[in-house]
Amino acid sequence: MTEPVVIVGASMGGLRTAEALRRFGYDGAITVFGDEQYAPYNRPPLSKEVLAESVSHDAVAFELRASVADVNWVLGTRVLSADLDHSTVTDHNFEVHPYGTLIVATGLRPRRLHVPNGDVRGRHAVRTLDDAIALRAELVPGARVVIVGAGFIGCEVAATARKLGCEVTIVAPGVHPMLRPLGQELAAEMQRRHEAEGVVFLMKREVTDFIGDTAIAGVLLDDGTTLDCDLLVEAIGSHENTEWLDGNDLDTTAGVLTSNDLRAVRRDGSEWSNVFVVGDVARFPNPVYDNECRRIEHWNIPTETAKRVAQVFTGQAQGEFRPIPSFWSDQYDNHLLAYGVLALADEIRLEDGDISGDCVFGYYRDGVMVGVCGIGMRSVVQSYRSNFV
Amino acid sequence: MIKIDVDMTKCQHYGQCVFEAPQVFKLNNDDKLEYTATADESERANVEAAIDVCPMQAISIVE
Questions:
Q1: Least packed by Cβ within 10 Å: which of A150, A213, A218, A254?
Q2: Cβ contact, residue pair A328, B14, below 8 Å
C-alpha cells in the first residue's frame, strides 16, 4: 500500500472511498480535498425534497462514521492540477501535496447555455447545495419558470416547482422528456402526466438567447418566438470535472478512462498502479453488458466504485467488477425505479401493469434483458433485477 | 445481536437496502419497507452497506 491516500472530491464518491478504505483495513493517512465549503452531503434531495422544503446543509449532510474521524478534510479548496509522474497535486493556493495513491472523485458539473445575452440574473442550475438554496428562494407561487432540458433533473424540478405553485414551461430539443433512458412509450406517458399537472412542453425547441437587461425576463427560441419568464433553470446535462488532470497522458474524453479495476489508463493502454477513479467521472468497462467503457451517472455507482477501489487497493478484490446500475425518480406521485442500463435497449416490452397506471417495462438488447423500469410496483421491478446480474 | 432502526418519517420505500441486506430488509406486496429490528452480528457489514445506499439516509444501527 502506498501512503498517503489523497482523494480529490469530497462528495459521495470521496466519502465512500475513505470509509471503504478503513473498512477493508487501510489505517494510513487519508486526505480529502473538496472545492465546496460543505462536508459531504446527499445530492438527490436537491431537486426534490430540499427544493420543496427548507434548505440547509444539516438536512442533507451525510453522517460521518467514526472510522473516518481521522480523515483530513480540506474543504473549500480546489485542486488545480496533478502531476502523476511525480505523484503530486497542486491546490488553488499553489500548495503542492505529494500522494502515494490518488483517488479521482471530482464528478460532474452542470453544462450551461452559451448565448449572446448570457450575463443576466435569474439563471439556475441544480448540482450543489448552494445551487438549490439559490433556486429555492425564487420558486415562489406564481413565478414563471422556464426549464431548459427534459431529463430527470429538469422533470423533477418541474414537478417540485408545480407543487410550489409556479408556472412551468419545459423547453427541450427531444420529442419527449426522458426519452433516451425510458423509451418512447414510457416517456410519452410521463409527458402526459406532467401535462395533466399543468406543465407546458415546448419540445423540439432550443433557447437561442435571453431577454432582459440585468435580470432575465424571457427567452428567445429557435423558431423566433419568445417566452416570458422570471427565472430559468438549465438542466441540459453535465461536464466531467477532469481539466485538473490535463497533461498526464490520460484519456479524459467523456470521463477518465479506467480498467475494470478502476485504475486510470494511459493513452497507450497501460495502467497507473496508484491512480484510481470513482463515481460518475469514471469511464469503466462493465462485463455485465459488454466491453464498452461507459460513465454511469446513477445513484449507486459512487458507493460501488468506492468499495471496489478499496478492495483492489488492499488486495482483496475478487472476480470482475460488475455493478448493476440503479436509479429512481419521484415526479408528483409517480415513483420511477429502474435497474440496469435502459438506454442500451433495442426493444422495450410491457411486463406488468397498465401504461395508464402503475406499470413495469423490460428493456432488451438482442433479446436479452439489460434493464427494467417501473412506475410504482417497486417489488415487481426488483423481482426482475436478478435477470441481468 | 445488532439493533436496526429505520426512521419511517424519512423512508420513501425506494428499496435500495433490499439487495444489500436481504435477510433484514424487504419490500412487501404493497411496496412498503419491512425490516427485522434485530439481526445477528454477522449481518453488520450488510446493514452498513444498506445504510450507505439509502437515498434518504434513514437507516441506522443502534449501538
A1: A213
A2: yes
